[in-house]
Amino acid sequence: MLAATATLAIVVAIVIVPLIFLAASLASEASSVYERIRSGEVTFGRYFRQMLDALPSWARSALERVGLDDGGSVQSRLSGERRAGEPPGSLRGVPELSEARYRRRAALRSRG
Predict the structure, then answer these.
(1) Domain ranges of the chain
(2) Most buried in the list 3, 89, 96, 109, measured by CB within 10 Å?
(3) How far apart are the first and last CA of the chain?
(4) Tell me: the pLDDT tens digits for 23-43?
(5) Are 55 and 78 in contact (CB under 8 A)?
(6) Half-sphere exposure of 32 toward its Cβ, with a 13 Å CA cutoff?
(7) DSSP 8-state code for residue 90
(8) What Cα–Cα distance (Å) separates residue 67 from each residue in 5, 48, 60, 64, 108?
(9) C-alpha neighbours within 13 Å on the C-beta side of residue 72
(10) In which element (H, E) is residue 10 found?
């Protein structure tokens, strides 16, 4: 009986207590991030622009081909808005991008 109680106390001390502190810390961080988003301190448009600027030119041109080269177009795609005449769920330019990938792979295979 004493061994079971000691084992239970060790498990609580090693696993449960740190887990409680971790959950409290995570909740605090989530609350902090939420408040920064509400106050406007965190702007996803700025982060998106920084991410696009950091991409290599080939990746930027691929995003331009599919119409995802600015925050507004990404937001409209995510919100479900679409251009006139564009079918639902359409990603304009994706077939061309897939075709370019196919041609590039075929060229690499022919070299080897």
Answers:
(1) 1-42, 45-84
(2) 96
(3) 70
(4) 999 999 999 999 988 898 888
(5) no
(6) 6
(7) -
(8) 63, 14, 10, 5, 28
(9) 1
(10) helix 2-11
DSSP track, 18-83 = HHHHHHHHHHHHHHHHHHHHHHTSS-HHHHHHHHHHHS-HHHHHHHHHTT-SSHHHHHHHHHT---
What's the pLDDT band for 101 if we cut at 50, 70, 90? Answer: low
3-state secondary structure of 97: helix
Q: Is the pTM of the predicted complex or chain greater than 0.70?
A: no
What does the alpha-carbon distance between residue 43 and residue 14 come to, in Å, rounded to a whole number?
39
pLDDT at 37: 85
pLDDT digits over 53-100, tens only? Answer: 898 989 888 888 887 777 777 777 666 655 555 555 544 444 444 566
Q: Are 86 and 93 in contact (CB under 8 A)?
A: no
Tokens of 48: 């998106």
